[in-house]
Task: inverse folding
């Protein structure tokens, strides 16, 4: 059988509200998630041995191959699907690691989609969803790879209809482990970060057909609750946001996920392209991508 190929698209948290910390230690979140037009590429060559090879400009940043979420997801699925066919994975890594854009989660989700195709499984198969959540909190949303309102611990997804949003994404090439950011947030077990009434009062997101400007207006009223604690760990995040805000045409700039990647939404792709070039010149050591979110 020929090799199968899929992409792990970067996930961007347009908003991120931490509702509170549960008694089991996990945090309940609400987040509007979009996906970018930059992605890792994962290839699966069917075979008898499960292996993973790394390539691409950021392959060295991925750490030990044995800890990779692609292999974790595959092994978890093999526990639930008797006789699961797999093979040799090759990951072309272009997305920054520990960057708040779900790179590892997107790769694991791509692996699950490839394994589903190889084994004739529906993407609605409950075992796939179960494995996605067991692999990591961002894997279920990356499995679908479509804009949604994500709540709970990443297990409840409500599809949203986003327009195509011109954007610039920047990572200052410093890793920010998610666990460190939540530790810096400092919530005790069972503690709520928002009032009880706020938990049940949802935001009315724009409906299908709304413009980028309509969305930015609503998004601007929200925030990313992890931005402040992440900035205490890596103050350079503040420099990234300032650099984005200093460009022409930036409508909204904030951090994605637990950082350190930040993004700005622009009125048009020309403004986004010019902004990216300006930032590349001023900060040649940063990872910069100009593209779209949807």
Result:
């Amino acid at each position: 059988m020929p090799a199968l190929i899929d992409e792990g698209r970067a996930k961007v948290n347009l908003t991120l509200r931490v509702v509170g910390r549960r008694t089991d230690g996990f945090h309940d979140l609400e987040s509007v998630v979009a996906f970018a037009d930059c992605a890792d590429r994962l290839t699966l060559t069917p075979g008898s041995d499960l292996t993973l090879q790394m390539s691409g400009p950021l392959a060295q940043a991925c750490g030990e191959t044995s800890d990779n979420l692609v292999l974790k997801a595959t092994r978890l699925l093999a526990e639930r699907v008797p006789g699961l066919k797999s093979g040799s994975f090759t990951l072309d890594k272009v997305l920054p690691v520990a960057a708040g854009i779900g790179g590892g989660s997107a790769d694991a989700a791509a692996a699950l989609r490839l394994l589903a195709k190889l084994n004739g499984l529906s993407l609605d198969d409950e075992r796939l969803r179960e494995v996605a959540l067991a692999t990591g909190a961002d894997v279920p949303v990356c499995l679908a790879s479509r804009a949604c309102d994500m709540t709970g611990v990443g297990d409840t997804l409500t599809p949203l209809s986003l327009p195509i949003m011109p954007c610039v994404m920047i990572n200052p090439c410093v890793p920010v482990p998610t666990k460190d950011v939540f530790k810096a947030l400092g919530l005790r077990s069972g503690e709520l970060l928002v009032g009880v009434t706020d938990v049940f009062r949802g935001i009315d997101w724009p409906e299908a057909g709304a413009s980028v400007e309509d969305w930015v207006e609503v998004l601007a009223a929200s925030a990313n609750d992890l931005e402040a604690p992440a900035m205490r760990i890596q103050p350079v995040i503040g420099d990234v946001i300032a650099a984005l805000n200093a460009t022409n045409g930036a409508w909204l700039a904030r951090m994605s996920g637990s950082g350190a990647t930040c993004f700005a939404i622009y009125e048009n792709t020309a403004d986004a392209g010019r902004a990216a070039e300006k930032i590349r010149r001023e900060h040649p050591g940063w990872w910069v991508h100009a593209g779209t979110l949807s």
